[in-house]
Input
Amino acid sequence: MVLSSLRHLPHGSARRLLQAERRLAERYADLVRLAYLVLPASLGRHRRVLLAHSLVQRSLPEAVPTVPAPRSPGATGRGGGGRGTGVGADPSRSVWVPVLRGALGLCRRPRLWPPGARPPRLLLPRLPVVLGLRLFPRVGGAEEIVLGQALSGLSAPARAAFVLLRVECLTEDETRAVLTAADAPDAEAAVREAARLDAALGATAAALPASDEFDACTLQARPTDLVRRRRRVRLAGAALVVALTASVSAVAGSTHSAPDAAGPDRADRHGPRAADLVRVDPRIWADTSRVDFTAWPARGDRTGDRALLDRALAVWARPSSRTQVTHGPGTTTEPPSRAPQLLYAGVLDGRSWVVFHDGQRLARYSESDSGDTLSVARVDDADVTTAAAVALDTRDGTARYLLAPWVAETATRDLARPDSPARPLAVSRDGVTVPVPLFDGGGEGAGGAASGGCGRHPVLQFRSSSAIAEHHAFLLAGLGGLTPVHLTYTPLPGHGSPPARQPREATGPAALTAWARVGCGLGGLAEGGVKAVNAWDFAEQDLPDGGGHAVWTCSRADTWEGTGDVTVALRLSGARPGEPARTVTRARSTAACSRFGQNVLARTRWRSPQGRWYVLAAGSRAVTGLTLTGDVDATRRGRTLAVRAPEHAATRVRARLVSGEELGEVSGRRR
Output
């Protein structure tokens, strides 16, 4: 790299230059990874790769006078002070500094640029330059995707601090020194921001940044559109004979064209094309441990229609004014940063449909003479059940589903009639079902309504192939979203074998009986981004005055965002078939009734058959005693309570747990 210039340097300077070059060569991959992670994700993986390599190679002249002596054995920080990187006694005199200074400089808003305005696009890297190829690191798993999202939400100095702390194993003081030397605006705040992310990630924080997902030296290469590039070269040659003013006008006109120009009739010139789409081997689902949308092959009779696929990608990149765009809660409609995976392309009922998966989201595109639609939804933590079906044509209260390749048996059943058998569901060779009625239910949440019926409860019942799991049947409820909702069940303590500590599939008699009463409120979850709903029978009690038997159920609806809402309901014996359970209370965005909130306590008022009013309360398995306070005071041992009280008595209840701690009741709206 520098041998031709050594004879023009003094002996000491030449030696330092050789040392700097050797150190850059030894740590080249780590330095490129550092630059790659600091650069903003909005640049795209290809441009970040090239800029990272360019920054490291251009850092040599600045690194020459600042190469330190090796760190002494007694001066080690956490993890040995960066694994022998030559941090020395002064971390600011390291080869990281020029790389970080360049990367942070590219992330800053220009001095005279208006506050709040989008900064101009970064200049192309000087070296290396790669023509005709798209370069990007290997794709990681779900954890790497989550980390990538988390890092993109940090400031550039905080991203740098995170890498220095977790990958290079520097102490916080050393990290602050390096950032200060690299002209970071607020090194102290950056370290605090990185420490918060480090604490949130826990034990995986050190391993994930070192994975292939962020290794900008272990790359995959894909060509750009060869035909389009050849055409552009020819046009460029012809354009040389055109007057400069005409060329400038043409370029300016195309640059400032309206967004609608990139509608379905032309592809986004900067986005992925049909030739770049990822297509999976049809047999991979039976030979992988990751059974989700990444194992779906491309199906449908239009998978070879490049014009259709290019239009779908173009609409995703830049929807036109005639495109109806919908998205789930917490879901961005931004185009994918790399070529997505093709799941389906075909024609159903006169409309063309295309389904993509970009590792985190599903995108469903459809087109017809009446217009185009684009729907985007999160699926970043899907599994064998939640990745079992995607809704295609949804209209007139029905949906046609594209099924996963591992679905071996298909049927439908009415959840409101637990004793009725499931009915077979016809599926085409491409894995598309006939129209299936959507879930027709009233109520405001999973758990039921106060009184009255709530319509039909049609659900899908699937069985996985024995190559995935033996005797694995599960239920999905189509609520109108892009993916149906997975229904599970947790039985009463002592009523399950083995003990009921985790939700199980809602296909057994007890599960179907419970869901027949609490499933009414599923209709209220439509378009709520719900991933799964679990009905947990957490307590039962005999009611006074001959009131019969009651079961307390906590229904938890988990969303793709990770939040969850709960509804506590009381199922009374002697109710009519299909009569919804009585809603006790609801709580939003809570950990209750999940593996992070395994203790639950609820209270309601109830009128006995003899006309007397009672306060009823019940707790889950770890509850040893209940205390009622307010207008009525009472204490009971055990997990249930029934105390006479006026109809409108103001009360509250607390529970004692086996551990000796106290537990408050689920808070929310009551009935």
